[in-house]
Amino acid sequence: MSSPQVATGDRIVDPMIALAGCSTRRRIVVAGSKSMELMLELLRHGYLLAAAAGNCGRPTGQYHVALVDWRRRTLHALEPTMDWLMNFLSPRAVLVVWVDAQNAQKPAANDSLRTSLTKRGFVIVRGAVHECGCALLARRSQDHPVQKAA
Prior knowledge:
- This protein is of the alpha/beta class.
- Helices cover 33% and strands 29% of the residues.
- Strand 5 (122-130) and strand 6 (133-140) form a beta hairpin.
- The relative contact order is 0.17.
């Protein structure tokens, strides 16, 4: 009997969950080119409140965690996704952005990602390096509270 092949998403789901400190009771939104695959993998892991960017509903600050798979994509293209994602995240949300290792090792790309997150009110908590790439964990800063509609 041969062992089943590990899909691309499988290799990053566990490290992203660990980095974010997710519990199965947290609402998680997944964004990126493989968001549906990652969401299905989260569901298989027991994270029943996970949603992909394509089926996450209306933006009402309802998600506690955002997992963004940004491998094989430019960091410049991340800007509109981050702008879109902001309204889905709660005031105490955490965000994990996963990028290719070569992007994270370039000082300019690393600074660009950190600046992008900081200008959106996130504080970088830590990073992690894995065989499939690198990830940054960020939390919403209390200095930039989410504005609620009147």
